[in-house]
């Protein structure tokens, strides 16, 4: 299994934002590490949205957040006690799925870190991912790691 994957809803969400090239790049990666949605994943997303209806704002057409959490649950075990939440200063288990987001835990806000904490899934930011993977881009920031 690949070390880094995401779901097609991320591409749809980026398309909806008319991002500056990120959507174009993401679409070009579809066969490499972007996964399609199936009926089982939709069932998990439906359950997540029932439990956390504020995870996606009502005005967002293609909210990827619940699909990311659902995929992480699919490939990992999750903690039934719902106590695990990982950020900058803690290590992650390389055999468990870890969601990467720039969202931060915020009191009263239902977001990826909040749901991950409740569902027993690890969650880190991009800077921590770069540290854990020991990625360095040096002089040429366009070079990407080959081991995705």
Topology:
Elements: E1 6-7, H1 8-17, H2 22-28, H3 30-33, E2 34-35, H4 39-51, H5 65-75, E3 98-100, H6 112-119, E4 122-124, H7 126-133
Parallel strand pairs: 1-2, 3-4
Descriptive account of the structure:
This protein has 148 residues and is mainly α. It has one domain. Helices cover 41% and strands 7% of the residues. The protein contains seven helices and four strands, in the order E-H-H-H-E-H-H-E-H-E-H. It has helices at 8-17, 22-28, 30-33, 39-51, 65-75, 112-119, 126-133, and strands at 6-7, 34-35, 98-100, 122-124. The chain has a two-stranded parallel sheet with strand order 1-2. Strands 3-4 form a two-stranded parallel ribbon. Helix 1 packs antiparallel against helix 2, helix 4 (39-51) crosses helix 5 (65-75) and helix 5 packs parallel to helix 6. The longest helix has 13 residues, at 39-51. The chain is globular. The model is unreliable at 78-89 (pLDDT under 50).
